Amino acid sequence: MLPDPTSAPARRVGYVTKMYPRFSETFVLTELLQMQALGVDVEVFSLRLPADGRFHAGLADLRAPVTYLTAAGIRAADLWAALRSAAAELGDLGPHLAELLRLDVRDALQSVELAVHVRRRGITHLHAHFASVGTAVARAAARLAQITYSFTAHAKDIFHDEVDPADLRRKLRDAVDVVTVSDFNLDHLRRTFGADAARVRRVYNGLDLEAFPWSSPAGRPPVVAAVGRLVEKKGFADLLDAVALLADRGRPVELVVVGSGAEEPALRAQVDRLGLAGRVLLTGALPQAEVAQVVAGAAVFAAPCVVGPDGNRDGLPTVVLEAMALGTPCVATPVTGIPEAVEHEVTGLLVPEHDPAALADALDRLLGDPDLRLGLAKAARDLVETEFDAVRQAARVAAGFPAPAPAPVARTLEGVLR
Fold first, then answer.
1. Is the Cα dihedral 215, 302, 337, 47 positive or negative?
2. Tens digit of pLDDT for each residue in 187-236?
3. Structural contact between residues 267 and 282, judged by C-beta atoms closer than 8 angstroms
4. Rg (CA), the chain
5. Contact 308, 233 (CB under 8 A)
6. Residue ranges per structural domain of the chain
7. Distance from CA of residue 19 to its chain's centroid?
8. Other residues' Cβ atoms within 10 Å of the Cβ of residue 270
9. What is the sign of the dihedral through the CA atoms of 76, 78, 82 and 88?
10. CATH topology of 12-206+394-417 equal to that of 209-388?
11. Which of 194, 270, 274, 348 is the most exposed place for a label (fewest CB within 10 A)?
C-alpha cells in the first residue's frame, strides 16, 4: 500500500554503500553511530556482501537495519520480473529508462530494488558514501522513487583516472547536497565542474574522541607506527627505505606497519633486502581498538602518502586524525587534504612525496626530541577537538538532509506490463 500523499512523512534516511561493513572504512560506521545518537532515523543499504570477515566492535552498537540488495540476477526473465514488480510500486518507469540503461545491468537492477524498498519503508532521502557506484545506484533509485539524494565524495572516487567526468557532473548537478572531506577536494570539484559543484561543501570525517584519549608521547619508546592498506598510494615502500637510512645512522628505531593488501609480498621482500627483519613488523589488519593501542604506544606516526600513476590518492586519512587525537606526532606528505590537519612545524611535520631521505630526517628529529614530540602532539589534539569531533561533523552532514516532501502518487503500469 502506498503512503497517504496528504500526510507529511517523518524524515527517514537510507545510507547507501558499496559494501557494508568494510573493515577499512571506519568513518562510515562512526558517522552512522553519531547519526543514531542525534536521533536521525537511518537504514543501511549495501550493494555487496562484506568480503573480509573482520568487523569492528562498534558494529554491535548500531541499531540501524541493514539490507543487502540482491539485484535479482541478470537473466532477461529476472529483469522483466523486477520491472513488473517495481512498476506496481513506483508507477511509470518510462521517463527513467534512459537513466537505467546508462548503468551496468546489476547497478540498474539494484537501483530498481532500492527504489522499491524506499517506497515501502517510507525512506525520504538517500545518502551515499563515495561518488562511484553507491551514488550511481542512490541517484537512480531516488529518481525512480521521487525522493532526494546526497553523497560524500572522498578521494579515489573523484581523482582516479577511471572516473567519468560526465557521470560525476550529473551526480553533482542532481544531488540536493554534496559533502567532501577536505578543502583540497572542494577546490578541485569547484574548479573542475563550476556551477554543477555549487552545492558541494566540506565536512571533515569525524572521530569519536572518547575512543581516542590523548597521552603524552614524550617518554614513548623509539617506535614508528604506520597504518593502512598495503597499496602503492600509502607510500610504505618509501617508509621502509627511510627506516633503513635511520638504521645506517645508528638511530634506535622499530617500525610497526598495520594493514594488509596487494603490496604485502613486495614489502616483505623489501624488508629482507634492506636487512630490516629485526626492526620491522608487518602485523596484518587489526581491529580498531588494537590499531589504537599500536599508535598510542609509538613515538611517531608516519603517513608518507603518494599520488599513484593512475591518479589514485588518499583524501585525508582517518588514521592520521586518530594518531593526532592519541598524542602521536605525525610525519606525512602534503597529499590532497593532509596539510589541512598536519600543519608543518605546528601539528606535525611534512616532507615531499617519494623522498625517503627527507622522511628519515623528519623521523630522526622526532625520535630524538621528546619536547618537539610533546609540543606538536598538544597542538594536534587541540586541532582535532576543534575541527574533527564526530558529534559536530555528523550534525553538519545531517544538516544537508532535507525535510521530506509529501509522498508522491504512483501512476501504475502494472496492467501494461502484465
1. negative
2. 999 999 999 999 999 999 999 999 999 999 999 999 999 999 999 999 99
3. yes
4. 23
5. yes
6. 12-206+394-417, 209-388
7. 11
8. 17
9. positive
10. yes
11. 194
Contact 388, 207 (CB under 8 A): yes
Residue 330 backbone zone (phi > 0: left; psi -120 to 50: alpha; other: beta): beta
Amino acid (one-letter) located at 309: P
Distances (CA, A) of 335 to 155, 202, 313, 357: 11, 17, 8, 18
Q: 415 pLDDT exceeds 50?
A: no
What's the rounded Cα separation, in Å, for the pair 147 and 157? 24
DSSP letter at 349? E
- CA-based nearest residue to 85, from 144, 31, 42: 144
Q: Helix (H, G, I), strand (E, B), or coil: what is residue 151?
A: strand
Selection from 235, 398, 367, 203 nearest residue 300 by Cα: 367
8 Å CB contact between 181 and 337 = yes
Which residue type is seen at 346? V
CATH number for the segment(s) 209-388: 3.40.50.2000
- Cell numbers 534516511: residue: 13
**Cα 160 to the chain's mean position, in Å?**
15
- Lookup: cell for 117: 524498498
* Model pTM score: 0.86
Q: At what angle do helices 236-249 and 356-368 cross, to 10 degrees?
A: 60
**C-beta separation of 312 from 156 below 8 A:** yes
For the beta carbon of residue 235, count every other beta carbon within 10 angstroms: 27
pLDDT in tens, 138-165: 999 999 999 999 999 999 999 999 999 9
CATH architecture group of domain 12-206+394-417: 3-Layer(aba) Sandwich (3.40)
Beta bridge partners of 148: 125
